[in-house]
Amino acid sequence: MFDDRRDAGCRLAARLEALRGSDVVVLGLPRGGVPVAFEVAQALRAPLDILVVGKLGVPSQPELAFGAIGEGGIRVLNDSVVRQAHLSDGEMAAIEEARRAELTRRSERFRRGRERIPLEGRTAVIVDDGVATGATARAACRVARALGARRVVLAVPIGAPDVPAQFAGDADEVICLVMPQDFYAVGQGYRDFGQTSDDEVVALLERAREATAMSGAAPSDGRDADDPFLRDEEVRVTAGPVTLAGHLTIPQRPTGIVVFAHGSGSSRHSPRNRYVAEVLNRAGLGTLLFDLLTPAEERDRANVFDIGLLAQRLVEVTRWLAGQPDTASLPVGYFGASTGAGAALVAAADPGTTVAAVVSRGGRPDLAGSRLGDVHSPTLLLVGGWDDVVIDLNRQAQAEIPADCELTIIPGATHLFEEPGTLERVAELARDWFLRHLTP
Prior knowledge:
Layout: H1 5-15, E1 24-28, H2 33-44, E2 48-50, E3 53-58, E4 61-70, E5 74-77, H3 79-84, H4 89-111, E6 123-127, H5 135-146, E7 151-158, H6 163-166, E8 173-178, H7 198-215, E9 229-239, E10 242-251, E11 256-261, H8 271-282, E12 285-290, H9 295-298, H10 301-304, H11 307-322, E13 332-337, H12 339-349, E14 357-361, E15 379-384, H13 388-400, E16 405-410, H14 422-438
Parallel strand pairs: 1-2, 1-6, 6-7, 7-8, 11-12, 11-13, 13-14, 14-15, 15-16
Antiparallel strand pairs: 3-4, 4-5, 9-10, 10-12
Helix pairs in contact: 1-2, 2-7, 8-14, 11-12
């Protein structure tokens, strides 16, 4: 058991020691998470801030969240819950308005007029005193991502045994010190689990600011003076009649840029694609992860599998890159996952684009149909060894693609490459393929 939240924070900090010295912001969830987060921030010598989030609950089932809101006007929706609950735009707007007013009051109470610490391009370590239902922590992860965090780490002292799996799609890494089989409440892990007051939260934030100012741990704009990136930011990408959200990262002296096309049900926040993108960035390659559809378009499931539409979006985004001063001269590669791989191959076959290389992760190249015969970009097909059906589809596609096309089967991997070491292998192979074909 933990003596109290301070003890829990000290023990949690020990597990997060590897993050010391990196561009980290520690975010405590008010109120109980802030005393824990304070100890983590002190140990990592990182700035401490709060992340004020609000769940948007379905009226008939308030505990069922159809979305979440955060500071800065951020809103994250769970489209499947919206559809199942048959929520209208008016109902959602009314619920959000009420929650937004409450969130603003809480933020003003804790911040006392201070601006939030920027998260763009940084690692956000979200800390709470434990995870019960997980709704608040999940909302926090999504809001941090929407605020531009490059990497999201959820760190808690105690939770149920399924906590790592529960947050696999929302956080890049989950740290939970104690996961008892008979878990029933966060308080069971503490000898002293008294309530944290608003005044205590304000006092801890002030102490953390003073410590940061004395140590010079973080510049006021939140970025290192020796920034390794020319650009690392959320962008709005014009694609035909719509504007899409994306995240553009360009390292110093880039040799090329890779555009990501995610699979159905995913987005630019996909932890797997973001991990691969980080590996490419470290190798000197720029990356653009973007949402292939607008939120309104995603509600129609037919759009998610409209390969022609998705491929056209890739073509438009490639043209957008050609008009940007920082990327106009860079050779372009495509990284497609699942259905996104089919779209990437169709876009690569488009006569209006010049694509230097394509990598498919667990892809469905068969969805490209007859356009496979028009693909002249060097293509690498990566498939899990336990993904039997997709292996056959990729073998057939390999025979139809006239360009240099290699098929690599990664042993012990299923379709999503969730097994230890398999996604790392994907990233390494993709990196080497792009460096070979994108580097002048």
